[in-house]
Design goal:
The chain is of the alpha+beta class. It is built from three helices and two strands, in the order αβααβ. About 45% of the residues lie in helices and about 10% in strands.
Length: about 55
């Protein structure tokens, strides 16, 4: 839904340089991938970090 809204804004010439979302979106790989495909910068937390990966 958010990606679609961003695409609709772009149709009207509005292209926010950065998108911020909560961990519900941060844990969603499809969402992050859709932003990457569109070269949209984003800041989202991930709720389930593996402490060993840090």
């Amino acid at each position: 839904m958010v990606v679609g809204m961003r695409d609709e804004l772009a149709e009207y010439g509005f292209r926010p340089p950065l998108l911020a979302a909560d961990a519900g979106y941060g844990d969603n790989g499809h969402f992050r991938g859709a932003l990457d495909e569109r070269f949209i910068g984003y800041v989202v937390p991930e709720a389930h970090l593996d402490p060993k990966a840090i």
